[in-house]
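Structure tokens
________________
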Amino acid sequence: MLIVRADLGDATPSAMRIAEGRIAAVGARLVPRAGEEVFDARGGAVLPGLHDHHIHLLALAAALDSLRCGPPQHHDAESLRAALRRAAAARPGAWLRGIGYHESVAGDIDRDWIDAVVDCVPVRIQHRSGRLWILNSRALAALGVGEGTHDTPLQRRAGRLTGRLYDADAWLRARIGGQWPDLRRASDALARRGVTGVSDAGVDNGPREHAHVAAQQACGRLQLDVLMMGSAALSAAHAAGGSQTRSPTVSQTDPQTDPQTDPQTDPQTDPQTDSQTDSQTDPQTGLRVGLPRGLQAAGQAAARADPPGAGGAGAAAPAPARARLRVGPTKLYLREIALPAFDALCAEIRCSHASGRAVAIHCVTLAELVFAAEALRAVAARPGDRIEHASLCTPQALGLLGALGVSVVTQPHFVFERGDAYLAELSAEEAGWLYRGRSFLAAGVALAAGSDAPYGEADPWRAMAAAVRRETRGGARIGAAEALSPQEALRLFLGDPWRPGTGTRTLAAGRRADLCVLDRPWAAMLADLAAVQVRLTLRGGEPIWTS
């Protein structure tokens, strides 16, 4: 393939030849060869394919087949009622699955509320936090649950089942069953935005998730490259699936995951959670700034801890250029209300390092962030270690992260998507610490971004625009001093998947032909990132999206 009239960033029309999955040549004077396919870029910018550094593929696939039940699709009860009735009528007899509900729509809904709207089919609606399901009476009956059933985690009020189910996905999965999701729609939704690779951040990813993703790639339904984070059990998937590895198996039970119940949930990225969430520990209902008692002592202990031996394997070695599914860091999930023992966290990190895998630590509250940073300092952070979200970061925490040399993978679009809710809960100073950009770069932190889809919009261009504008849906600005330039925002999605925020990929000859061609030149792209449309996406030289 020859791409002609392309803007490669220097405002000079150029051409690019693609052969055997790589960029074979770049130059203004390239001419088509006999029989060579020619794509006219019409002056549009050509970029390396984007990489979403934090996404939940299986949950995204499930979400695409679900009814959106909260903002921005629905802002009032009547709108939601109408949508539920339409959806139930369109699928008579089948389960109706809703996602993204928030109390601002219709309050604390329960079984009776749903029954009054839809009583002809089983309905389950997931709260936006990911921690709560609300089921109607038909759903309870389908699960074999009645008022006389007592071995159930379902909430009761005055002795009667409310249909509300907290933090019990495993219980629900065991009863509802379900099929592994088809990843075609998720793949297409990302490819149309110029994404050629993703890092799946599911904490429960194990051999079965690895096998399903590999199978979807093999049959062509998933056309993206995947770096899969997850449990220690993924080390076994390396050997079994033939993915690049040098890690021995680390024994860990692989949870029984059903993608249809969102096992990849990342609940603490939601700005407003249900009433069961501790408002002092959830960033969405308060973003606690103070640290839990005893944390400073833990940090001091970390500083005294003996460093690990020098012979560790370090971060996993990059896979060959054509590897499509690779096993990435071990995902460690912290919750401020139930932090592990400090020594236990350090031991988990050391174990992952010894197996040849870096760690990716979920940190939303400030307490989680400092706790993780002190643990990484205690064990000596390795290349590839990363912090997920870093939603709230004080100047002191910035210093810790800068000294560690770890990557931070953040979600600047949450300033837009959820910023108005944050402003209602935070002081002006605290709001300035949300999803920082400029300060991370100034502190020398390797900064990258991911959509966190389906818990955020799966559109990297809107995330870039949010990183530049720092505006909420309501038009308020949050942390204006944290704004990035358009070029810096673009680089959030162009870094090395193994070490996010580093090694910006380029369009040099010999590089793998993971590319996206835009509908406008570089200057117009940088002027309005949110408006960008992708005309062509290539992965390994093969088209995976054409407009």
